[in-house]
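Protocol step 4 of 6: structure prediction from sequence.
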Amino acid sequence: MDTRSHTRGRIVAGLAAASSIALTAGVLVAGSPLHRAQYTATIAAPGSVTAAEDLPAPVSPLEIRAAVAAARGGLWDAVDGARASLPEVPWDEHGLSHVELAREWIRYDDTRELYVADLPDGRLAVLTLSPRIQRRVESILQRFAEPGEALVAIEPTTGRVVALVDDSSADAVGPGLALRAAAYAASTFKLVTSNALLEQGETTPSSETCFSGGGSGFSESDLELHPDTDTQCLSLVGAMAWSANLYFGRRADAFLTPDALRQSAEAVGFETWIPFELPVERSHLDIPSDRLGFARAAAGFSGTTMSPFHGALIQAAVANGGMMMVPTLVDRIEEPDGTVVYTHRPFAWRTPFTPERASTLREIQADTCVSGTARADFARRDGWPSSIQVWGKTGTLSNSLPDGTAVDPAYIYRWFTGFGGRGEDVLAVGGLVVNTAEWWIKGTYLGSEAILARYQ
């Protein structure tokens, strides 16, 4: 079997020389305040450095070596030097084409009206990116300068990545946000919790829980029933639409275990290498075992992190009847004479949901963009086409550490993961904007623009 290291393919930066927007790949920024895990090890980095300090989690060989070298001022050298530490990837097993790419090879082909990559051996890789979607999102990122912005769009039935855009105006955010699990997953994780609750059997879309408060967090006493004050009652559909934290906290406390929630997350790819031509940082789980910590994690208040790429891929599986396709950026490869030597074909990676469960997960996300937390950028946005329907989940959380310790600089992560389109033809998106106290756009806006670019 043909096997090659999956880090050999790397794209980082703009699709055009004049653009500051990044079509990114695999830049793992070490030492982020978002991750804190004690790890003591002898690192096989240049100079045989030994380290015992806070490093990002999960601590793969790539991340460990990158962290050490980054502290010495050599992040890119660390990434390059860590390649040999990674396991070989059976590319053919996943239907992938291995192509070594670098940012200076990427260009827009005016004749084809497509993005292509000129390979060193003279061949041409024709990419899956949609110029219409890619350019529209790029223009938005250029217009609104937030500390960090990222948008990934994937065709659910094929796995084709049709948009991969990010930008960063702050050193603390760093490059490559689209493929990095650098931000807390926040309330987008409620989709994982919902799947676990549905699997447990005591929750249906119409199951109600009554509560009071919990909008910005909750304490252990809030997990107890308070009949005199628990006057807000929501179903699972309503709780998803309004991102009701105590609904998920209480139901997880009553019906789930940390292991059950962890299994639901791992089923959709958390703590798992995602097969792709570019390295995607693993999404990291943080599910405490104590009562309050667990309930807060189920509601999205924990150190669990996720990349926009992974968020789009999870929603693509929901849209595709429960089947998660192998994502790809390469549509075909041509020899110098035009002979096509490789053509992408859709390939299933895993099936985290049954078709029935996927249908239910679609159902409980139906109100978010109509009357819930994302309504302003979708159904209630001026001029939004009534023929375009969108399902999804928002998420908002500061970059404070899970124990509440403030981080400098202070940011707010604003997410949208979902899918939308006309009829069964839908596009899955993962949008993330890193805001300060003064902000212009949110992840919902990026997601809406990508969907409009496809279907309007």
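Step 5 (inspection) to follow. The chain has one domain: 107-455.
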